[in-house]
Amino acid sequence: MEKGNCERSVGHPWKLVKRVLPQHTDHAGVMWHGAYFNWLEEARVEALAEVGLLYKDLSAQGFELPVVSLKINYLSAVFHGEEVVLESRSLPRKLARWPWITKFLRSGVLVAEAWVDLVLVKKVREENHLIKTVPHHISSYLQKLQFGPDINN
Questions:
Q1: String of DSSP letters for 99-153
Q2: How do residues 139-151 score in pLDDT, each as one tens digit?
Q3: pLDDT for 83-120, tens place per residue?
Q4: Distance of CA 37 to the CA centre of its chain
Q5: How far, in Å, CA of 85 to CA of 103, rounded?
Q6: What CATH number does domain 3-146 carry, 3.30.420.40, 3.40.50.2300, 3.40.1650.10, 3.10.129.10?
Q7: Which is deepest, 28, 49, 79, 86, by most CB within 10 Å?
């Protein structure tokens, strides 16, 4: 996961606006590092829904998208009550990996950045099997994600 990969993405980023709630913070009111993981997943699941693929439908077909690699750079503390915008980009697949980059912005200022690699697996008889060739009905959604949302609608 390289920082330079973001330049290879196409279109606008997927956006998710969040507010830091008490359950996201430590005793000092600073956003707890683990809360970022939940927001990253929410951003990806919401982007999938925006292109027409609900994660529950993907799971019902026996597929999952587990995280296999994740790196976060925390640049500035975020506090209880603050609004954070997540700007996520789906990058082109690399072999079986599907990389994402997400920027966490507070008032337009970068406060954290994350690089996540997912893989597609299919559950067969209680075992997960890595899917290297993505079925067409799923790959079409993954391609839509790379172009970002249509901001004209």
A1: EEEEEEEETTEEEEEEEEEEE-EEEETTEEEE-SS--HHHHHHHHHHHH---TT-
A2: 899 889 988 897 6
A3: 999 999 999 888 889 999 999 999 999 999 999 999 99
A4: 9
A5: 8
A6: 3.10.129.10
A7: 86
